[in-house]
Amino acid sequence: MNNRVTPSFISDLEENEIFVFGSNLEGIHGGGAAETAYEKFGAVWGQGAGLQGSSYGIPTMHGGVDEIKPYVDKFIEFAKSNPKLTFLVTRVGCGIAGFHDKEIAPLFSEAVNISNIFLPESFWEIINKK
Length: 130
Fold this sequence. Notes:
This protein has helices at about 30-40, 65-80, 100-105, 120-130, and strands spanning about 15-25, 50, 55-60, 85-90, 115-120. With about 130 residues, it is of the alpha/beta class.
């Protein structure tokens, strides 16, 4: 099993850790991981995507998987260009947005060899089956 697994529940972050959450384009962080990001990790109300304090938003509420993919790709590029940060990806899109892990996990396939990206165990299980 991969050792870069995001904890199931995150209540605190270490220095240089970033909480990666599913958001909406409007940046209304009213529930789920987005609310946690807003209340605990510096997510900015009104900012739906990108780095916000010790969090990083990936919009998942505006369409299907094809509309989410560019935001995941942008996140992966951001993580690659910031190797001193550790990114703890939550099950983005698999809560309030209503997607299943099997739909979202493959979007993170390019993160497999990026050592500072941690993924949920359920995502690893799906990616490793490919």
